[in-house]
């Protein structure tokens, strides 16, 4: 059993007969009344996000998880196939467990959290950013850059990303996996 003082981002807990991962938390100590912890929880079974407030000292059921490095092999419909980089064991995960499956490129390494009690995968942590090649982008119009204008571009995984007007087909761009937004153009 853990208490609210042990809450941190990425902690997995049992709550309402489900397993949740803490995405955000904030310890609040108002001037009047007891302290509490405001949290944002994501269900690891269906992906729904809910806001919850725990009073200070509240006991929570912590789920013991182990993180293992897996390599993404290939998608097959709504199923994604991964391989453990140490044991070469393969697992298949549903698309809804992934935070941003449309940004996952074959060969990409991810961290998979596995419940030690049941040996079932709980969540997949993507790298902070990925570098992808632009496969389709409308041509930018010269002189149309007075404002922070963007256009839609398609990357090699099929995802659509808003990019600045100077990005062309064949360019490599860095994308933030948390928000799915363009970060910078990568020169090699």
TrEMBL record:
What keywords appear on the UniProt entry? Cytoplasm, Elongation factor, Protein biosynthesis
**In which pathway is this protein known to take part?**
Protein biosynthesis; polypeptide chain elongation
- Translation elongation factor P/YeiP central domain segment(s): 67-122
In Pfam terms, one family for this protein is: EFP_N
CDD domains registered for this protein in UniProt: S1_EF-P_repeat_1, S1_EF-P_repeat_2
**Key word Cytoplasm present in the record?**
yes
Q: Signal peptide span per the entry?
A: none
Location(s) in or outside the cell: Cytoplasm
The Elongation factor P C-terminal domain, residue ranges:
130-185
- Which GO terms of the molecular function aspect are on file? translation elongation factor activity
Its main localization is cytoplasm
Keyword Cytoplasm present in the record's keywords: the answer is yes
Under the heading PANTHER family, the entry gives: ELONGATION FACTOR P, ELONGATION FACTOR P (EF-P) FAMILY PROTEIN
Similarity comment: family membership: Belongs to the elongation factor P family.
Annotated function: Involved in peptide bond synthesis. Stimulates efficient translation and peptide-bond synthesis on native or reconstituted 70S ribosomes in vitro. Probably functions indirectly by altering the affinity of the ribosome for aminoacyl-tRNA, thus increasing their reactivity as acceptors for peptidyl transferase.
What this protein is called in its record is: Elongation factor P
Gene from which this protein is expressed: efp
